[in-house]
Each structure stands twice: as structure tokens, then as C-alpha cells.
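Page 47, continued from p. 46.
Same chain as before, 655 aa.
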Amino acid sequence: MPELASPPADGSAMPPGARPQVLAPRDTPLLQPFKPLGRNRNFLLLWLGYVVSALGDRIHFLMLLELLCIRLLHQGRYPVQQSAQLNIVMFLPFFLLGPVAGIIADRVSRRAIMVTADLVRVGLVFVARSVILVGALSRHPDVPLLLALLFGSEFVVFIFGALFSPARTALLPNIVHPQQLLRANALTNAAGVIASLAGYAVGAMLIAQGLRYAIFADAGAYVLSASCILLMRMPKGADTGAGQPAVAGAKRSSFWADFRGAVRYLREHRRPVQIIGLELLFWVSSMLILNSLPAIVSGAFHMRHELGYFMAVAGLGMVGAAALLSIFAGGIPKEIGIGWSLAVTGACLALLGVDRQWPVFLAIMVVGSFAGGILLITLETLLQRVAPNYVRGRVMGIRDLVTNAGMVASALPFALNGALGPDIGWVMLATGLLVAGVGAGLVVSYYRHQTLPLPVAIVRRIGAAYLMVVHRFRRTGACTIPGRGPVIVIANHTCSLDPLTLQIGSRRRLIHFMMAKEYFTLPVLNHFFKYLGSIPVNRSGTDIASMRSALRLLQEGRALGIFPEGKISLDGQLQEGHKGAAVLALKSQAVVVPAYISGTRPHKSVLSDFIRPGKYRIRFGRPLHLDEYRGREHDKAVISEVSDRMMAAIAALRQ
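Result:
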């Protein structure tokens, strides 16, 4: 593998005559071998640190509401105005410091940033909250002073939260393999939501016993998070971005140059900008619910202490979304992960704006959080994948700036007008319809740009979901099938699901198969095979008609799937190939793409192949070009040689 030269930190060109800093594969995180997530020490520690931090955050939020609304203002419920004011104070540092935090995450050890942020927050939470609580319980409390102390300390706490966020999200792709990234985000999100559910429930119980217990639990969570991150063992340079000068002898660029480099990168790359825009839309919608929920629960539903439990139950949808995505570790279609998820999230927000029966309200929140969880994890994973390491921290910082600007703006009306809250339904309805419309537009756009016919694309999605859930299907490596022109895809044959496995492995081409005639007698499936343009073959001898049909299909520039063995191998071993595939390849001059399917169970019947779980894997090999044999398609020796080459290419993939 060739060595890589790292780009300049600000995205600019290298100075004339400068010598690039060459990175060996061991110095480049994505070129290092990665263990499975369950045995990846660094991922497990980062995951555990995030979990306990999420637990502390929820205890923290409920503790602040209790301090502000009940102890300082002596209100009998959690008004929406004070809740929105707290949210603004929490999110404002992310908005103000997002780019700065991103630049720091690209310059300094990301692990050191997170440890420092956690430890500083321990002191702030413990000291500031204790002082506020003592002052609130005094006989003559200075309420304006205590309010200033509460909001001021909260702002400082979340300054370090703003430093923590881009460092964590930028570090994750450096400690897991790119193909593990979706599952890593799903597992992290699921654990974080479960911790949040527990945090709301535990926070409610601790507050009922006394606020001091909640303060100790909150500070303890940050201590444990810092301890986990300290125990990570990072290879040299694996937890930094553009912190080292990219050119030997060059000086480190200024903060302003780093920021301009990130802006230049976003101006030249449309996908990260689109992802950040969709995240902004999601978080603005979420803030409408977050700001109005305390008032709805305590006002419309006449509950107060149940707020924590209410939010905990609603979070079950996020857990379900994360669990689902951890199954589909290879990825899900973007029209589902983004388009449909955004449409359902918007529809649920609109319904929340018109319903005030708490069981129905709660059920809609669960569905909306499920769709929102799929959307958020998908967008987060996409952004981590498309943003390169040298600029990833700054991209995450700009993302924090944009999304938190939207959240602050959506919380501001609630903070200024205490009358908003239970009567905000019309705003939720309008916003929900807007979000659902954007999602529906994305779905239409995705389907219009499908390379496959729409019915085939939909059926392919269903087949992919079935293979991934039942048979844990994964494609190993890239799909090497050319995007256009005549192609013959050849593979080993071990079970009845091999055609479906090949088709799901091919993302952009519809593969037409030569299949035994007996498959066309199966009820329902025979219509499906005919719709896909499959060619029935008589296995009892040479079938001239099927050969002509296949040749005509290739002359039209389509893709043809063939299993050269001619029948299913009962013992799973690669059998001798028939000459028909070689004849077709020579006559059509089509490109031949070998593939190898593994992980299937020994074949017994069509039904058993469908229902018995497996661990299916498919790998595509380098395309074979047969131009050297042009004009010799009738030479038996050439046919035998090409057939042997094709079977050898399949066998090579077995290794």
C-alpha cells in the first residue's frame, strides 16, 4: 500500500519546494487493523464514558429545573419560560464557541480535551450547585444573585461541554473501522438513550430524597467519564487532526487560517453542508418539543414529578432506532435513513401539536423519537465518513454552531414569553408539516434518481432487509460490477438464495439470471422471476433457446448472472464449471466479474434455505477482460481456457 502525505492544516496548497510529511500506514489511523467493537478497548472506554456522561446530564437537567423553578422561584410546576431559559444557557456556548472548539479539536489531543472538560465540570457542578442550594435554603435568599450564579455557572459548565462535543465525534472514526462506524454510532446512541432514561428516573428519585444527592451523582458521572477516557490507549497521532504541521519545517497555521480552511472545505463539498442543514432541521423540531414538554406535562396533563418518567418512556423510540441500526451495520438506504425518517419525524411533530390526551401524546412521541433516532444516527455517521480527519474537528464545530444557533433561536420565544407552552400547538403543527414536506421531497428525489426501476428498487430494499436481519448479510469490499455495458457476473452456488445475494450485493445494476426451469414452477415467485427478466434453462442438456436469449440480453448492454457449476453444491465445495458461461462471454465480449458467496448452510430445500439463519458474505473480484480472445469464440481449447480462468477467479476469492 502506498504511503500517504497529509494535507495542509488549512486546506491550502503546499508551499513551493516544501517537503511533504509522509505518513506510514501505522501512523494513519484508518490504515491500522481494527478489532471487533466488542474487543476494541478504546471504543469500549469511549462508549462507557459517553454513557455515564449522558446519565449525569439528565440528572443535571432535572436538578436545575428543581433548583430554578421550585427552590428559587417557589413555583409549583416547571413553567415553559424557565425551561427555555435553561436550554438557551445550555446551547449558547455551542453556538458561540463551535468553530473555536472544532479548531482546538484539530490542533490538540482530542482525548486530553475531553478529560480536561470533564474534570473542570466536576468542580463547577459540585461547588456552584452546593453554593446555590445553601443560598436558596437560607432565610433571606438574594434571589437575583442566586439566579445570576445559577445561569452563569451553567453557561461556564457548557463552555466545556462545547469543547467536549467535537472532540468526541471527531475521535470516534479514528478508533473504529469505517465499516464499523454506523454500528458504533448506533451502539453509542442506544446506550446513551438508555442512560438518559435511567438518568431521568434516577434524577427524579434523587431529587425526591434531596438535591444534594443529585449533585453528588452529577459530579460523580463526570469523574467516571474522565477516568474511562484516561484509560484509552491511543497510537501516536491517532487522537489528533491537523495539530501537526503538514509540511516539514512549516509553522503551525493561525486560528483564523484554520477556520478559513474549514469554510473553504465546506464551500467546495456539498454533502457535508446538506447533512448539517438536515441536522439543523431536526434539532429545531426537537427543541419545540423539548421547550413545550414541561409545560404540557405539568399544565395540560397536571403532572410535575412525572416529567422525568414521561421523557424516559418517550426515549424508548430512540433505543429501538439504535438497536435496528446496529443490526444493519452495513448501512441502510438513504431514502429510509434520511427521507422517510425525516417525513415521519415531521408528521409526528404535527400530530403532537393537535393532540392533548397524554397516552396518545406519549405514543406519538415514541414513534417520532424512533424515526428521529434513525435520522440522527444516519446523519452523524455520514458526516463522520465524508469529513476527512484533518478537518473533521472543525466541521463538527461548525455543525455545532449551526445546529445550536437554530436551537437557541427556537427556544428564544419561549424564554421571552411565558404564555407560550401548552398553546404552542399551532407552531408545532406548522413546523411538523414543513419538516414532513422536506422529507417527502427527499424521498421523491431519491427515487427519481434511482438507477434501477422503482418497483425493482423497492423489492431490492425488502430483500436487503431480509438478508441482513435473517442471514446477517454483508458485502466484503467494493462492488466491482461496471456501471454500464454488457457484464456477466459469475459466482459459486451453495443455496437457493444465491441469486438474491448477488442482486443485493450489486447496488447499481439489475442482474438478470439464467435459472433452472423448475424454479419457474414455484407459486408467486415465478411471476417475480419473469418480471426480473430471468432466463429459464433446461439442465438436462444444451439449451439453444436460453443461450440465444442470454446473448441478446448481453448485446443490449445488460448484466447477466450465471452460476457456472450448473447446480447447487451440496457440500459447499466449488465444483467443475460448465462451458456455457465461457461461450457467452466470448461471443458477447462482455466483462466478466467473479464473486464468491460464503456463510450459507448446506442446502436441503428451498424452504430451509429461506428460513435457516446464516452469516452470508459476498466478495466481488477484479473484472476479467477477454479482448485477447476476440474472434476465437469457436475454438474449444480457448473455451476451456476461459472457463478455467473464470472458475479460478471464483476460487481465488474463497481465500
